[in-house]
Amino acid sequence: MSFTRRAMFIGGVQAGFGVLLAARMAWFSVAENERYTLLSESNRVNLTLIPPRRGWIIDRYGRPIAINRTDFRVDLIPDRVKDEQRIVATLGEILGLDQDERERILKDLEDAAGYQPVQVSGGLTYDQYAAISVRLPELPGAAPARGSSRYYPDGAAVGHLVGYVGAASAKDYEKNRDPLLITPGFKVGKDGVEKVLDAPMRGKPGARRTEVTARGKLVRDLATRADEPGGTVRLTIDAGLQAFAARRLGIQSGAVVVMDCHKGDILALASMPCYDPNSFSDGISHGEWDMLQADERIPMLNKSLQGLYPPGSTFKAITSLALQSAGVDPEELVYCGGGYQLGNRRFACLGRHGPMNMHRAIAKSCNTYFYTMGRRIGIERIAEVAKIMGLGTEYALPMPSQKYGTVPDPAWKMKRHKQDWSQADTLNTSIGQGFLQVSPLQLAVMASRVASGRAVVPRLIARKSDRPAGPLPFPPEHIANVRSGMDEVVNGNGTAGRSKLPLEGIRLGGKTGTAQVRNFRGGARSGLGIPWKFRDHGLFVCFAPVDNPRYAAAVVIEHGMSGSGAAAPVASDCMLYLFDPAKAMEKLSTLEAGWGGDITTRMAAEAQAYKAARATAESPEAAAAQADAAVANALNSSNAVAPAANAAPPANAAEAGE
Amino acid sequence: MSVSLVPAPLARLPWRLIGLVVFIATFGLVVLYSAAGGNLRPWAFSQGVRFLVFLVMAFVIARIPERLWKTAAFPLYIGVLVLLILVELLGFVGGGSQRWLDLGFIRIQPSEMMKLAIVLAVARFYDLLPVGEIRTWRAIWPPAIAIALPAALVMLQPDLGTALMITAGGIVVMFLAGIPLRLFVGGAAALTVIAPLAFFFLLHDYQRNRVLIFLDPESDPLGTGYHISQSKIAIGSGGLFGKGFLNGSQSHLDYLPEGHTDFVFATMAEEWGLAGGIVLITAFILLVRWGVQLSHRVDGKFARLTAASLATTIFFYVAINLAMVMGLAPVVGIPLPMFSFGGSAMMTVMICVGILMGLERSNRGRTRFD
User: Quick count: other Cβ atoms within 10 Å of Cβ A373?
Assistant: First the structure.
């Protein structure tokens, strides 16, 4: 019968299709089970990285320079916020947020999607954190949390040394697609030691496995692997001295570098003024940034490594060594009649010193002596010794950038300026002027090498090996002669008599220097009447104790007008700190009282003044004009401070020196 | 005749069929309970109540005698066809796709009813057709038009899945009625020619997309292909015995879309594994088989055609839904009857079950004395 056959056929097709479906299902759940289980797990489980705790930076004695501080923050989870206006108002009241901040939060909330938290504020005090925590029931969506942020106890005093940290930039992430870089709360070093030693301090991130819904909502925590904190970096820095040096620079713009003159340990590497790295590590505001940019003292420049200055008369220590190595008898006399005649040009000395041997010439900083002798031995010898003494080179320090500076010789001049070397150039170089450019660190290395007679190499990372550096290729008595001249500068009849150490039995040896910024033909170079940025730089290199040197230092005060007046007292006080901290601190507090408080107080006052100045600008246009002027100003001063890179020094630099 | 403890009217009920239906629906409730994260609400409770109502309705329908169905077949078909046109007009007026008529207390989906009406009408047609004319042209064109009209209307809605089911339901009756086989062979050949043309000219963009994505789901993992991909993940990750009751992450964490309606099978498979899947597929096949076998036992062309074709209608639901969930068919929006959350399909299938029980009941006495 046709119907029965056809019905059976249909039944057969149905049963067959049932088997086919079962087989298809078995294929998925047996043969491909592993693959689909994996896919299902990767759907379900979300891996969140926990930023590792950053390693500390400590000083040579284990005192903290950069640490992590627990901080309290509060975020808003957009999906859970009911009445954002009211909640932001309440939070703003508790936290004291201004109108700008409140608007920023409301805007972020609008742009945010789902469960991605919007930061309300970081760096809450514990009281604010507690206040929000107890009021949580009336603040749906608010999520107070504990995190950690980088903290630099000495603030601006260590800014240029350690740099600062911040969230990784988009460029960092493009270069290295490490998901850690875009994890909220993860910071990378942006400058200084933080930047160069970022890898060893970074540590290994922890991970949190969470179960999430398709819409990203957290269901529960599955497992957590703790982070591995980064390694501690121990620097050769003496944190106490570093802070003291930075504070002692006061309202001046300049740098202090102090070294152990046998091992090369850098004990202080201060550059002021400086930004406060603490305000960078939790995000700097526009106002703060503008203020830093507008300051003609360039707080963003690490002057100890990147500032270049003519060494001025501090270079005479090197010229003296060069003279002796060229066979000049230190007792040979040169008569100073107040200058030196080269053809029809007269190179002036600061006084009429009469008969000068090397010892007295160093003490009195007599230019005539060094013109005469320098010309006799020639520029090649001077340049060679300058390089042996550590100028014109870069050192292997964990810092992002250093400047070489310039130790000029005929070949250099031909290459750089397409001109032949002249005798006038030799005369200028002999007294540390002309084309010479050095950084404060290089000056400190030079001072260390003079002090110890060893080829000391500066280092910033503390190491176990305490082997002193090898000797310099000079007979010890040559160096001793220079040291004795420098002893005379401070403790005898010299240029820095006012900067003696107020201690029994410990003498400071040093050499002053004044570096010309601009050539005023016959006009005033150092008076208070000329603009700050055209005034001469004041320099001082020194070591102590003279009898058995342990420490060496270099101080540069930008536009400080003279080495003896501006730089030597700072250097002397820093040395005093190393031998008698209490006495040094006492002197400092008297000084700071006159300057208007310590660094933090003064920076706060400056910020206040800057804000007030901005506020008084009547219209936005006026404010903009003011800001433009400030920028132009900053540009001008940057040209004046760092002439090395672009401007050739004045041809007639002969009048400099002390 | 043995003496039974059970009263005769109760004992005469088709317990096997009822058992299968209750088993499938109960299993469905368990899965819906889990899909709601271990809650009776929002799905399991209302679905349970609905099932009980429809079960009672099926028993009531079972008491409708066969001759009444014969009488009502054509008027029913015309009535549903009018409703379909009405829906189309209303949808046109309302601006947009519309599939149901809202009568206030109930929403009627005429296209759903048409799946039954077409079977009854075509079966009645062949019932009335003299035996000798089955191989003539007159045996073909009236049912063909009767099928084409509602199918076209439903296509316009647009609802490809239901249109295909109506067409298939009618053609199955024609096949069983004894239309020459060569027509079906020829039809299949014609289809292979027409299908590509229809694909490019008749289907809506979104329908064409679904077909394309069905052919290659990974091409669109976040769009329409997402449904199929996530469904496969749910089924595949279930393994032999599943992740356990209330432990399906795909459904509980919302990765599986429509996990309580069209893709409820994937939800089940994730928690009960291949074992649960085979049990459920077997239950459905047995249910369909009960209907097909009934067609051998009953008398009269109408009863035979109706029984086998209604069973096949149930089969279509199950087959299309499972094929879709397992990536063997495009996503067409056909639920798994009695298992998926929702009333329309359940009502249609429970009416089928009621009619099948009625046919069994009307023919029982006769078979006994044969």
Answer: 23
